[in-house]
Amino acid sequence: MKMKQLLGKLSAERLDHMMQGPLWQTAGQRGLSWGEAAVDDETIREAVSMFSPYAAEVLTEMLRYFAAAPADGERLLKVLRNSTGLSGAECQLALAELEEWGVLFTVHKVWGESLYFMPVECFAVWQRMLFPYKAEVLTEQQRERLMNGVMRPYCRPLGRQLLSAFSLLGKSGLSLTTNGTLPKKTIAKLLQALDLEECWLKTFDLKWSYSDIYPVQVAFILEAGFAFGLLTAVNGALKWNDDQLRKWLMLDETVREYQLMNWCLALLLPTAGGNAHLAASLTSLQAGEWYSNQRADMWLHENRIVADIGQEQNINRNQPRPSWFGLWHNLGWMELVDCQQAASNEFFFRWKAAAPLRKDSPVQVQDLDAIVTVQPNGELIVQPECPFWIRWELELIAERKSDEQVSVYRLEAASITRALEQGRSRASIQSFLEQASGGNHLPSTVIALLEVWTSRASRTFFAEVALLRCDSEEMAAIVENDSGVAPLLMEKLGHLDFIVEKSRISEIRACLQKAGYPARKMVQTDFANDEYNYPYVSFDIEGSRLLELLPKEESKIPALSYIYEAFPLHHYELSDLEARKKPLFFSEMELVPSMWTKQLRAYHHSTRKELIEKALQWQTPVQLRMERELRSFVPEKLEQQGDGWAVVGLLRDDPQREQIRLTPDMWEEMCLVIPGQGSPI
Fold first, then answer.
1. Cα separation values, 306 from 14, 62, 69, Å
2. Burial of 19 (0-12, 13-18, 19+ CB in 10 A)
3. Residue 547 in contact with residue 254, Cβ under 8 Å?
4. How far is CA 176 from CA 213, 313, 486, 504, 529, in A?
5. Which fold is adopted by the domain 3-118?
6. pLDDT tens digits for 55-91?
7. Is the pLDDT reported for residue 336 higher than 60?
C-alpha cells in the first residue's frame, strides 16, 4: 500500500496516538507529520535505537524474507519461529508493538487472513538502517578491468524520455480506438521516443492493462502520466490536465527526477522479491564512484537475502545481471561498463552525478538566459539546463535531431505547420524563440523562413458543423419562416438543408418542438472534439518559486491504472488496534501459581511437565538451570515415552541453533518467562 492510500484510511485519532509515541515524538517537535517522518532518514535512525530487542529482530527478519511485499500473518509467524530464537508469544508481542508504534500495519482479507505491511515508500529507509550496505573501493585489478571495459550507450534521464513521449502524444492526438486504446501508429511512435527497453521492465513481475496491444513501455508511460495527474480520461479519450502539466513542466529537473525515482521504486519494489533489497541498498551509494556488481552479490549472500527475481541478461554477452542495473541505466541514472574478460560475469556501475538519490534543496528558478541558440539555418542548440517548459514547446515547433548533453533541434516547414495546427502563430513562435534565446533578435534568415512557412500553411481548413435536414421543401419553408428558428439558421444548402451552430442545436430543437415539428432525437454524425491536443505553457516566475513536489490533493476523477499494483491492499479494511487479539498469557497469568513466573525453582517431574505444557500453550520460553548455567529454552513439542516424557525445542544460546530433545532430569531448576516483563534472556 502506498503512503497516500494509507493516510486516507488512518483516523486522526490513530495518527495522533502514533505521533505521541516514542518513535515519532522528536520528529513531531521538528514540525514533521507522520507521513513525512516515516520516510525521513534521521527519524528512522533514531527509531531503530528505541526498539525493543524483540521488535528489532522481528522487523529485520520480516524485511529479510518478505522485502517490500506484504506478509501473510500465519506465514510470517512461521518464518520468524524458524529464523529466530523467539517464541510465538514474543513474535506476537513484537508485531503488536510495531503496529502500535506505526511501523507496521495490517489489513484483513475476506476470509479473515491478516496481512502485515509497511507503506512501500518506507521500505527503502528501513532497509538501509537494518541492512547497511558497506561499499568497497575497487582494487587495482578491478580498475584495470574497468579501464579496458566497454561502456553501454548513453540514455536520457527518465524525465526527458517522458517529455518526448508526452509531446508525441500531444502531436499525434489523444483519441482512443473503439477498444479504448491508442492507435497502433501512436504506439509505435511512443516506443521510438524512449530509450527504455522492454527486457528490463519484463524482469519484474508486472501485469498491465491491454497487454495484448500495449508493450510494457507504453503502459509505463501512461501509468506515469496518470500517476502524476498529467492525463485524465474523459468520454472515451485522453485529455491533458493543463494545470498539472504546467506544474510538472515548471519543476526543477532535480526535483522532477527525484519524484520519478520514488515513483519507480514504489511501482517496482513490491514486484522484485528479495531483489528489492539490492535496489534500496544501492541508493545509499555515493554518486560518481565506480563499484563492482560482484560486491553487491556478495552483500546479498552475506545477509542471507535471495535475489529470487529480476535476473537480467547482458544483451551483448548473455550473462545474468540483476535487473536494477539495466533498468537504471535505461532510465538515464546510472552508467555501466561491461568487463571484457570471457570467463567473467563482472561489470562496473556508478550513479551519474545528477542521479536522483537525495531530495535536494527547494527549487531554484532559472533566469531566462540564452539557453537556446538560434542558428541562421534554423538549427536550435539547446543547453543541458534548459527547463522543460521550453523543451515542451521546442518539441512542437521543431524536429529533434539529437538529445544528449546538448540537444539539437531544427525548424522545418512540417514542424511549423504542425505548430500552426495546434493554435500557434508566426508571432507567437517568433516571440517564444526570442524569449528562449535570452531576448536576442532572431537571424533574418529564420524570420524569413517563418514568414514563408506560416504564409502558406493552414490558410484553409475544414470545419464540422451541424446540418438541419428537412424531409420536404414544404417543411423547409416552415422552418425558414418560423420566427424562433429563422435567426438561428446560418446558411441554406440547396433546397432542404441548413447550416447551424452545433452549440445551438438544443435551442433549435426547442423552437421546432414549440412550432409543432419535433426533430429526431438522434444526431446522425458523431462530431470529434476540436480542442487543441498540445497545451501552450508559458513561464510563470511567481508560480515557479512555489513549486517543489506535485500537489497531494486527490482528484475528484479517479485516475486510471495501466500497471496493476502487485498487492492492492487498499481494497481491504485496515485493522483496528483496539480489536487486536492479545497473547493468551495476558488473560491466564493469574490462573497459575505466581512462583512459576517469579523465580527459578526445583520441581517434581510432573510439575515440570505442567510448566512445559503451559509454555507450549502460551508459546512462551522457559528459563532452565542446566549444570549451574542459566539457559533460555523455547519448547516446540512434548513427547510421551511410556511412563516418561521429553520436550523438543531450541536452546537460544546454542551456536548451532538446532532443535534438541531434553528429558526432565537434564535441568535442575526452571521458571516460565513472560515476554515483555524484564529483559529478554
1. 36, 14, 14
2. middle
3. no
4. 13, 35, 38, 27, 12
5. Arc Repressor Mutant, subunit A (1.10.10)
6. 999 999 999 999 999 999 999 999 999 888 899 989 9
7. yes
DSSP classification of residue 24: T
* Residues comprising the chain, all counted: 681
**Sheet order of strands, 291-292 included:** 150-151, 334-338, 347-351, 291-292
Q: Taking a C-beta distance cutoff of 8 angstroms, is the pair 352, 287 a contact?
A: yes
Mean pLDDT of 413-419: 90
Fold matches, 3-118 and 466-515: no
Nearest CA among 19, 16, 23 for reference residue 43: 23
CATH number of 466-515: 3.30.70, 1.10.3470, 1.25.10, 3.40.50? 3.30.70
Closest to 415 (Cα-Cα) out of 394, 391, 389: 394
Q: Which of 229-238, 297-306, 511-520, 671-680 has the highest mean predicted lDDT (pLDDT)?
A: 229-238
Predicted TM-score of the model (pTM): 0.83
Residues 214, 222: Cα–Cα separation, whole Å: 10
Q: Where are the alpha helices (DSSP H) in 499-540?
A: 505-515
Domain boundaries, the chain: 3-118, 153-176+185-351, 372-456, 466-515, 585-672
- Alpha carbon separation from 406 to 168, 328, 382, 388 (Å, rounded): 20, 21, 6, 14
Contacts of 372 (CB under 8 A, 6+ apart): 380, 381, 382, 383, 386, 390, 394, 433, 436, 437
What CA–CA distance (Å, rounded) separates 549 from 250? Answer: 11
Nearest to 665 by CA among 649, 647, 652: 647
Q: Which three cell numbers stand for residue 521?
A: 432525437
